[in-house]
Amino acid sequence: MKLRVGVATDVGRVRERNEDSYLAREPLFAVADGMGGHRGGNVASELAIETLGSFRVPAQGAAAALVEDIKRANLRVMERGASDRDLRGMGTTVTALVTQDARAHIAHVGDSRAYLLRDELQQLTEDHTLVQRMVREGKLTPEEAGHHPQRSVLTRAVGVEDGLDVDELTLDVHSGDRILLCTDGLTSMVENDAIERILKDEPDPQSAAEQLVSLANEAGGEDNITVVVVDFEQGDGASGAADGVTVASSPSAVGVFGEEGNGSAGPRTGAAALGTTSVEELPRPTPIPPKRRRRWIWWVSAIVLVLILAVIGTRLYIDRQWYVGESEGRVAIFNGIPTKILGIHLAHVAETTELSASRAEQLQPWQDLRDGITANNLHDAEGIVTQIRADLASSPSRGTP
Ligand code: MN
Which of 49, 209, 230, 252 could make a disulfide contact with 8, Cβ separation 3.0–4.6 Å? Predict the structure, then answer.
């Protein structure tokens, strides 16, 4: 099978920075739509594409290998996000296509999409979004989902959580098939009918890609737009598309668009096989899990702090309490309170005396000695002991204790 490829990416009309990245190096094609504040989105999509850039198609099991590579990208983005506080919470979508013989393997996470044009346009991937889940549950119609304000909230993204689930799909391709990979900057702006019309009417893949980007911009261009069009034709080998899109070229075909100057005027087309863009940005909604996790850490920290303060406070209180009680048969002065909590004594002996506790208890005023006679301070406690000693001395002895 021979491939012809067209690629276009654009910042759109609203965002200041293009956080989409893409790869078009036969037999591997991918789009990635990054998210996260500051530089995060850009770094995430770039890192994911860079990881896929070293992909080698195995003789067998290409789909599984591609899934493994996306999982590898997931760990790399996670590690990077954990090590740099500016990048925390970043993530990216990845929709990737690898061709082998007459087969196309697709692996997918997020809300970028893959479509197949064969007679008519069919969507091959399912969006991992909150609204798509609601559509599946019958809570929203597809039309409502398309215009929902929260339509870009993802339920799955690369770089967010361990144990990422990657969708995969393999299909037989025929001569005349056309596969489109695109970020949601196209599909949130342009109806499927209009996408289908351009893909049907425009035979040149590069021109089709540029027209799709233009259409998204004419509709408002509210998001970054990235489009990869892959045509399958009878024959061997590859031929590059128009405008210098590199396909199956040098191993160093990695291109990064400049920060400035590529901005607003018309679609940018791929000047290199691997492209990313970066200008200023408006952050996309961050996926829910990391935020929630961060909030949990705050809660747990707050609870631990309160517990520590409570323990210190209790300790300070107990250390200022005194009472006179019984220890090993003798009258003793205790520091603390005469009680146990969870089997722990909240007092310790400060001073013991030679006075018999049982003899003291036989005297009416000291009969509750074993329960503890509270004192205001150590001096006060010593006063009580002095009183007991005096009372014992003045009372007739009734034998030894
Ligand atoms: Mn997007």
Answer: 209
